[in-house]
Amino acid sequence: MATWDEVDGALERAWAFEDMAKAAQAAQRIAALCDTLDHHADVSFGWGHLTVRTTTHDAGHTVTEKDHALAEGVNALMEGIAEGFRKHVFVCTHERAEGAQRPSCGRRGSMELMMALKRSAKAMGLEGIRVQKSGCLDRCEEGPSAVVYPEATWWTLPTQVEEAAALAERLR
Ligand code: FES
Known about the structure:
Elements: E1 5-7, E2 10-16, H1 20-37, E3 42-46, E4 49-54, H2 65-83, E5 87-92, H3 110-123, E6 129-134, E7 145-149, E8 153-156, H4 161-166
Parallel strand pairs: 5-6
Antiparallel strand pairs: 1-2, 2-4, 3-4, 5-7, 7-8
Helix pairs in contact: 1-2
The structure holds FE2/S2 (inorganic) cluster (FES).
């Protein structure tokens, strides 16, 4: 399965690994991601393979924004593992319509903040760092929100571009 498929009210995707130990390591990092997002997928693995299946039980076992956010996070995590990133920063750039019930990071300028952080990390010559956008991380009220792996550390970004760029120091 090269991408996520919707199967019986869940998103599902499988990956191939060269052995079982690497699949187990990936499963452990996915578990940490699930804890961080407070949304728990079923993860199964064996020799050379791993499968993730996510559904929202509270919504009657259907696929919701939470599953898409988790799927996006797992994709990035797997990409990071494959490319050997030392740190991986996900910045929420989700934008809700004006007047929506919950605030959104996109409306607080998170795209610009993410770009500033990315440029700053590059200018500092930091190796093995990936800064990228993500969907809603469900910390909308605290936003602009970001999460840094592998430690799964939450950041609330300052709203000034220069201050957000300075956070790259923490990625050393
Ligand atoms: S909109 Fe950014 S965490 Fe929800």
